[in-house]
């Protein structure tokens, strides 16, 4: 579970063992094996080295390996727990675990906070939120006046920054997100429950022993 | 027994999650057991494959194909695949359990059914088969063993996609393959399939549905002979006799379904518009599922009879909305209170970034869920609503304006499929005079939604929409890759 907290992951051999990952996450051994099928697909899409590089991640998300996107960058950086520029299989599974429908909301809230805390200061600052709003507007080809953007950000700060210090701390974020569960919708991927049916090839080389679990 | 497990603690427990019960049936590669989910007690059917046997007979790819097909055909009248599991030696398909057993076991009690009862089963069968055809999936092995009943007596077609496992990919039947089906008789198989001609899966299924209809009403097979050669001849010549109690409409419909020429044989959309099909109860009684997480796929509308079912989960406060919906088009002049949109805060907006939508990572596979499209507008909510109403009116859709800036549109689609269109538009205020409208497919046909989006919505919104998101300049990604198992 401790997707984020732990820096003490054992050095992965080539791929981490499915049952180890299953024990640490909500996924079953079979689900981890199905995720491995997906992981291989993505990690061999460009560089063929069995690791997910940013270009491969962008290709998977946008069908375009050169498409830059602030939010996709943030996701990539957070998935890359070791910060070595690639997403390894263990990192992939542990990070996706946060998006599992059965993962407690508290973990999703924590992940979203780190996602939006662009500079890693422990706060979501006014200018960070504005930067993100501008990014999504740009991505959607919406043009709003600077005043309108300020207004949107101010309005949100009025609701979220309850102690009025110009930045949203983690406690404020927890309260705000709990009140607005809709904004965490993208932190849950229903597909993860169907993953064994989406990538059924795992059945042929499943390593799950017959008396496992 | 395939089930003597290595698990020393509890041989009846699979992967710690399902407790195996009695054997329900066995096939060439698999045995099917009743089982219970340990966590919820829910009854399921589990099909157990011996992996070695599957591998030895070169069926590995076909097992994957079957999963892929079954996953695609979520329909209230099709047995659903819940989960796939595997160990080193076995593969398990966890499926919906049909508590009512085989439809034809019921026939053993009363050998033939009154036409209204037969009609109900036939409607459910045709609705299910038509839905699968719309997804590019053909059964090609419709026969009594594949028609099950759930606890409420609703029909469940099983083994869609399984034919791949039994028929050598379905490229054609070999003589020996035939002997495995239908207790050794090809009684349900279309002539063109018998003749090993390249065939249209849809038309072959229609023939089989015709045979099933005959059996339901007559109580015996239309084509029957202990001599296989004579049986083949009867089938290829469509040589059958209706018993005297068949109604005129039933005879007419059967004659069209049991047309030995697949080219002139009746189509699905004609069947669902046929007087016999529509008779009596105005709507096909399609099972409604209420407890599904992805309930969207189970919207129960009989487009064929142009009337609306109401989903069970709808709140009752919307009763008058329903009444309005019954009239073909409701051009309403909603009060401002009704259409006041919800507002979006900055994080709501950000959370809609495509960079945060990891479902894309799952490739086209991710798009079997309800689809969305989104546009922004500087127009007022009232102007947006009235434009949506105009678009709906042009397409003959019913419109319902709900609270909090939500507008529902529903109606038959162009393709004439059973699901048709069911769309919800939700209007949000992002900033003063800036609205974002999200359109969601809430249980209609994916292909219909996509067509509506590209052909009706986008062109007609032109001047009020000022930007699109999600689709960009190109249409949304392929929703359901068309897959023919032929």
Automatic annotation (TrEMBL), chain A:
<keyword id="KW-0106">Calcium</keyword>
<comment type="subunit">
    <text>Homodimer. Interacts with CIPK.</text>
</comment>
<dbReference type="GO" id="GO:0016020">
    <property type="term" value="C:membrane"/>
</dbReference>
<dbReference type="GO" id="GO:0019722">
    <property type="term" value="P:calcium-mediated signaling"/>
</dbReference>
<dbReference type="InterPro" id="IPR018247">
    <property type="entry name" value="EF_Hand_1_Ca_BS"/>
</dbReference>
<keyword id="KW-0677">Repeat</keyword>
<dbReference type="Pfam" id="PF13833">
    <property type="entry name" value="EF-hand_8"/>
</dbReference>
<feature type="domain" description="EF-hand">
    <location>
        <begin position="148"/>
        <end position="183"/>
    </location>
</feature>
<keyword id="KW-0472">Membrane</keyword>
<feature type="domain" description="EF-hand">
    <location>
        <begin position="67"/>
        <end position="102"/>
    </location>
</feature>
<comment type="function">
    <text>Acts as a calcium sensor. CBL proteins interact with CIPK serine-threonine protein kinases. Binding of a CBL protein to the regulatory NAF domain of a CIPK protein lead to the activation of the kinase in a calcium-dependent manner.</text>
</comment>
<dbReference type="GO" id="GO:0019900">
    <property type="term" value="F:kinase binding"/>
</dbReference>
<comment type="similarity">
    <text>Belongs to the calcineurin regulatory subunit family.</text>
</comment>
<dbReference type="InterPro" id="IPR011992">
    <property type="entry name" value="EF-hand-dom_pair"/>
</dbReference>
<protein>
    <recommendedName>
        <fullName>Calcineurin B-like protein</fullName>
    </recommendedName>
</protein>
<feature type="domain" description="EF-hand">
    <location>
        <begin position="104"/>
        <end position="139"/>
    </location>
</feature>
<dbReference type="InterPro" id="IPR002048">
    <property type="entry name" value="EF_hand_dom"/>
</dbReference>
<keyword id="KW-0479">Metal-binding</keyword>
<dbReference type="Pfam" id="PF13499">
    <property type="entry name" value="EF-hand_7"/>
</dbReference>
<dbReference type="GO" id="GO:0005509">
    <property type="term" value="F:calcium ion binding"/>
</dbReference>
<dbReference type="InterPro" id="IPR045198">
    <property type="entry name" value="CNBL1-10"/>
</dbReference>
UniProtKB/TrEMBL annotation, chain B:
<keyword id="KW-0547">Nucleotide-binding</keyword>
<keyword id="KW-0808">Transferase</keyword>
<feature type="binding site">
    <location>
        <position position="47"/>
    </location>
    <ligand>
        <name>ATP</name>
    </ligand>
</feature>
<dbReference type="InterPro" id="IPR011009">
    <property type="entry name" value="Kinase-like_dom_sf"/>
</dbReference>
<feature type="region of interest" description="Disordered">
    <location>
        <begin position="291"/>
        <end position="335"/>
    </location>
</feature>
<dbReference type="InterPro" id="IPR017441">
    <property type="entry name" value="Protein_kinase_ATP_BS"/>
</dbReference>
<protein>
    <recommendedName>
        <fullName>non-specific serine/threonine protein kinase</fullName>
        <ecNumber>2.7.11.1</ecNumber>
    </recommendedName>
</protein>
<dbReference type="Pfam" id="PF03822">
    <property type="entry name" value="NAF"/>
</dbReference>
<keyword id="KW-0812">Transmembrane</keyword>
<dbReference type="InterPro" id="IPR004041">
    <property type="entry name" value="NAF_dom"/>
</dbReference>
<comment type="function">
    <text>CIPK serine-threonine protein kinases interact with CBL proteins. Binding of a CBL protein to the regulatory NAF domain of CIPK protein lead to the activation of the kinase in a calcium-dependent manner.</text>
</comment>
<comment type="similarity">
    <text>Belongs to the protein kinase superfamily. CAMK Ser/Thr protein kinase family. SNF1 subfamily.</text>
</comment>
<dbReference type="GO" id="GO:0005524">
    <property type="term" value="F:ATP binding"/>
</dbReference>
<keyword id="KW-0067">ATP-binding</keyword>
<dbReference type="InterPro" id="IPR018451">
    <property type="entry name" value="NAF/FISL_domain"/>
</dbReference>
<dbReference type="InterPro" id="IPR000719">
    <property type="entry name" value="Prot_kinase_dom"/>
</dbReference>
<feature type="region of interest" description="Disordered">
    <location>
        <begin position="467"/>
        <end position="486"/>
    </location>
</feature>
<keyword id="KW-1133">Transmembrane helix</keyword>
<keyword id="KW-0472">Membrane</keyword>
<feature type="domain" description="Protein kinase">
    <location>
        <begin position="18"/>
        <end position="277"/>
    </location>
</feature>
<dbReference type="GO" id="GO:0004674">
    <property type="term" value="F:protein serine/threonine kinase activity"/>
</dbReference>
<keyword id="KW-0418">Kinase</keyword>
């Amino acid at each position: 579970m401790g997707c984020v907290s732990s820096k003490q992951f054992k050095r992965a051999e080539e791929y981490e063992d499915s049952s180890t990952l299953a024990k640490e996450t909500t996924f079953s051994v079979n689900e981890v094996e199905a995720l491995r099928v997906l992981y291989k697909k993505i990690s061999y899409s460009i560089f063929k080295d069995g690791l997910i590089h940013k270009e491969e991640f962008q290709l998977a998300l946008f069908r375009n390996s050169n498409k830059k996107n602030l939010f996709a960058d943030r996701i990539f950086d957070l998935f890359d727990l070791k910060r070595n520029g690639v997403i390894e299989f263990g990192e992939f599974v542990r990070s996706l675990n946060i998006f599992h429908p059965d993962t407690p909301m508290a973990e999703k809230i924590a992940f979203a906070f780190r996602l939006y805390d662009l500079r890693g200061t422990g706060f979501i600052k006014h200018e960070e939120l504005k930067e993100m709003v501008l990014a999504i507007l740009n991505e959607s080809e919406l043009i709003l006046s600077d005043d309108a953007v300020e207004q949107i950000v101010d309005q949100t700060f009025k609701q979220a920054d309850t102690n009025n210090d110009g930045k949203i701390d983690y406690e404020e974020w927890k309260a705000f997100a709990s009140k607005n569960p809709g904004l965490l919708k993208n932190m849950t991927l229903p597909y993860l429950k169907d993953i064994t049916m989406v990538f059924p090839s795992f059945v042929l080389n499943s390593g799950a022993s017959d008396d496992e679990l | 027994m395939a089930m003597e497990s290595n698990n020393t603690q509890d041989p009846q427990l699979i992967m710690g999650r399902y407790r195996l019960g009695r054997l329900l049936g066995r096939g060439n590669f698999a045995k099917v057991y009743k089982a219970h989910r340990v966590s919820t007690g829910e009854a399921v059917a589990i099909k157990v494959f011996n992996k070695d046997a599957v591998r030895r007979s070169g069926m590995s790819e076909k097992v994957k194909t079957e999963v892929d097909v079954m996953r695609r055909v979520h329909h209230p009248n099709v047995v659903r695949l819940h989960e796939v599991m595997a160990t080193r030696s076995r593969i398990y398909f966890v499926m919906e359990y049909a508590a009512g057993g085989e439809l034809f076991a019921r026939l053993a009690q009363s050998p033939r059914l009154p036409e209204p009862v037969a009609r109900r089963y036939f409607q459910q069968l045709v609705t299910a088969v038509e839905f699968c055809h719309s997804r590019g999936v053909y059964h090609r092995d419709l026969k009594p063993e594949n028609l099950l009943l759930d606890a409420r007596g609703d029909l469940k077609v099983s083994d869609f996609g399984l034919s791949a496992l039994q028929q050598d990919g379905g490229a054609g039947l070999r003589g020996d393959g035939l002997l495995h089906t239908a207790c050794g008789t090809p009684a349900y198989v279309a002539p063109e399939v018998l003749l090993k001609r390249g065939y249209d899966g849809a038309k072959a299924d229609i023939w089989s549905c015709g045979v099933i209809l005959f059996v339901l009403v007559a109580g015996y097979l239309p084509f029957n002979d202990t001599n296989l050669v004579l049986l083949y001849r009867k089938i290829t010549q469509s040589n059958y006799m209706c018993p005297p109690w068949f109604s005129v409409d039933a005879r007419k419909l059967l004659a069209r379904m049991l047309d030995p020429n697949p080219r002139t044989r009746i189509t699905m959309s004609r069947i669902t518009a046929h007087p016999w099909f529509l008779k009596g109860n105005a709507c096909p009684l399609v099972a409604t599922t209420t407890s599904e997480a992805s309930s969207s796929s189970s919207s129960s509308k009989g487009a064929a009879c142009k009337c609306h079912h109401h989903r069970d989960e709808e709140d009752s406060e919307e009763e008058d909305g329903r009444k309005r919906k019954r009239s073909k088009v409701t051009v309403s002049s909603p009060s401002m209170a009704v259409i006041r949109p919800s507002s979006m805060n900055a994080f709501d907006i950000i959370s809609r970034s495509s960079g945060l939508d990891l479902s894309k990572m799952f490739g086209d596979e991710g798009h079997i869920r309800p689809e969305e499209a989104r546009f922004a507008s500087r127009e007022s909510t009232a102007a947006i609503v009235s434009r949506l109403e105009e678009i709906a009116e042009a397409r003959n859709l019913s419109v319902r304006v709900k609270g909090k800036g939500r507008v529902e549109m529903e109606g038959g689609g162009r393709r004439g499929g059973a699901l048709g269109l069911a769309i919800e538009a939700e209007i949000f205020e992002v900033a003063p005079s800036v609205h974002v409208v999200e359109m969601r497919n809430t249980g209609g046909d994916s292909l219909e939604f996509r067509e509506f989006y590209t052909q009706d919505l986008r062109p007609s919104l032109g001047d009020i929409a000022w930007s699109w998101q999600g689709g960009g300049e190109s249409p949304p990604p392929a929703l359901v890759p068309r897959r023919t198992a032929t």
